[in-house]
Amino acid sequence: MISEVIKQEIIAIVGPDNVLDSELNRFGYSYDSSFVPLLPKNNPDLVVRPLTTDEVSRVMVVACAHEIPVTPRGAGSGRTGGSIPQKGGISLCLDRMTQIVELDLRNMMVTAEAGVRTIDLYNHCAEKGLFFPPDPASWKFSTIGGNVAENAGGMRAVKYGVTKNYVMGLEVVLADGAILKTGGKAIKNVTGYDLTSLFTGSEGTLGVVTQALFRLIPMPKRRGTLQVMFRTLDDGCRTVHTVLQAGVLPAAAEIMDRTCLEVVARHRKTEIDPEVGASVIIEIDGEDDAALETQTKRIEAAAKECGAIAFRAARSQQEAEELWAVRRGISSAVAALAPNRIGEDISVPRDAFPEVVRRIGEISKKHGLPIAVYGHAGDGNIHPSILCDLAKPGEEERVHHAVDDIFAAALDVGGTLSGEHGIGITKRPYIAGALGEIGIRTLKAMKAALDPKGILNPEKIW
Fold first, then answer.
1. CB-side exposure of 179: number of CA atoms within 13 Å?
2. Above pLDDT 70, what percent of the chain?
3. DSSP secondary structure string, 432-453?
4. Phi, psi of 433 (to 5 degrees)
5. What whole-number distance in Å separates Cα of residue 167 and Cα of residue 249?
6. Do residues 380 and 424 touch, judged by C-beta distance below 8 A?
7. Which end of the chain has fewer CB atoms < 10 Å from its terminal CB, N or C?
8. Residues 348, 410: contact at Cβ < 8 Å?
9. pLDDT in tens, 119-154
């Protein structure tokens, strides 16, 4: 519990309206978008909503002095429980820090506070013809601080990479309240250790990211969207591999299985061809219409070679947006198919994507659990969703065994536990198998050096 004296110290820093301690408010910060059960022990003792980096720093000074756990939080859109305060203490929500500090057109860089929504940053840059590529499915509400903390990816990662590929510098408040600034606008910078990369993807366990500097690239002049239908997931996976081998690098290549397509059909009150077992949506971009036409022809040829049964190019921006809206809404739509859905996030080498998809099908049969499969086929990032009813006797145990097998399959082909959702709470039991004893020891040494009292986002990663 946090004493009244300490509470008043914090109120003096951020103001009375920005310290929440009612039971209802505290409950609202006890969960995120993961599948971690709602438990009273996950309620923070206080919710603190600072406005500036200085306020974050001063709050951390108080927390450090009294060894109060602090769990940083953005929009709560994380999928692995990273913003759940498992040890109570302070839920430090940065959603008031919404300033886009600078758009530097000459250097093609933008500086934004942690609470800026991804879509707002994208639109702000797009107005000036500049492109911020990372696009997590939650981009309409996910925040920049969370994106950096989780090293968020998205559908364009196949061509443009993930958040870390654009972070040039960070402003980070350390566990003792010290304010660290890393990186900068210099394109080349090998002065000392790469602290910017260290904090990117650290899930709030090493410091609180309050501001980020991103590099931008010119906005593509033309975009096109293609939809290809296949009899099997394997055919769809092979097509993406064939396209890449043919020298075409799509901006995005998303795959959905039959279960996902049935959800879409039900929502749109349409029917799908009984032969169709998978669909791939591909985005291409380039300098002009001729570049798009060349890519389209190559992709269509590769798709036919791999057994495509339908090929469609969006004829308007509206049609393209409708296709992508379907993909972005898949996660919530699939969740409606069963009382419970356990969504996972594994990443494998591109050439192992078809093999892992086949193994997931075998895991589904082995445990008698439907598993919907969709993901970023272009970069090997798969999101298998186990559909279940945890109220049924023995169902929870079967689900755990299925998850074990999915992670084992990913590691067996040279993959890893997470492509973009992080480790958080839900993947803690598996991290030793992914990193090994020396890897875990090294991570813990970094944690001990930067957070010796262990107050920053405790109970996460390991």
1. 11
2. 100
3. HHHHHHHHHHHHHHHHHHH-TT
4. -65, -25
5. 23
6. no
7. N
8. yes
9. 999 999 999 999 999 999 889 999 999 999 999 999
Here the tokens at position 62 are: 């108080």
CB 57 within 8 A of CB 446: no
pLDDT in tens, 22-68: 999 999 999 999 989 888 899 999 999 999 999 999 999 999 999 99
Could you tell me whether strands 371-376 and 381-388 are parallel, antiparallel, or unpaired per DSSP bridges?
antiparallel
Tokens in use for 417?
């536990």
- My answer on whether 159 and 204 are in the same domain is yes
* Torsion region of 436: left, alpha or beta (phi above 0 gives left; psi -120 to 50 gives alpha): left
CATH of the domain at 130: 3.30.465.10
**Mind listing the pLDDT tens digit for each residue in 380-428?**
999 999 999 999 999 999 999 999 999 999 999 999 999 999 999 999 9
Are the CB atoms for 224 and 313 separated by under 8 Å? Answer: yes
Same domain for 230 and 200?
Answer: no
Sheet holding 70-73, edge to edge: 19-20, 46-48, 90-93, 70-73
CB atoms within 10 A of CB 288: 9
Q: Mark whether 252 and 158 lie in a shared domain.
A: no
Per DSSP, helices labelled H in 269-394 are: 289-305, 317-328, 330-335, 353-367
Residue with tokens 């059960």: 37
Range of the structural domain that residue 261 is part of = 222-329
